[in-house]
Specification:
Structural class: alpha/beta
Number of strands: 3
CATH architecture: 3-Layer(aba) Sandwich
Strand order of the largest sheet: 1-2-3
Helix content: 25-40%
CATH superfamily: NAD(P)-binding Rossmann-like Domain
Distance between the termini: 29 Å
Strand content: 15-25%
CATH class: Alpha Beta
Shape: globular
Largest sheet: 3 strands, parallel
Number of helices: 3
CATH topology: Rossmann fold
Number of domains: 1
């Protein structure tokens, strides 16, 4: 990550299908102050596939009942918003 940039991790990026991959990734890459540095999904294999497809250096799985506290959440899905509000 370049010095002075804000590192961003994407949760739930599925190349070619997810809102994160289709909309957020291109937007974040177009903004010079951000650097997408990690992707996480519920399964390590899918996170690694997403990282490879989207050219993201780090991949990880999110364990169930994780204690991850997101700093910013972008979602169009009402069901995801309900889930997120329960964090």
């Amino acid at each position: 990550m370049a010095q002075g940039k804000i590192g961003v991790g994407i949760i739930g990026a599925q190349p070619g299908r997810s809102w994160a991959a289709i909309a957020h990734m291109p937007a974040l890459r177009a903004l010079p102050q951000y650097d997408v540095v990690a992707v996480s999904t519920t399964k390590l294999e899918s996170a690694q596939a997403a990282a490879k497809a989207l050219d993201i250096p780090l991949a990880s799985a999110i364990p169930p009942n994780s204690s991850i506290i997101p700093r910013s959440i972008w979602s169009r899905s009402p069901s995801k918003c309900r889930t997120i509000s329960n964090w």
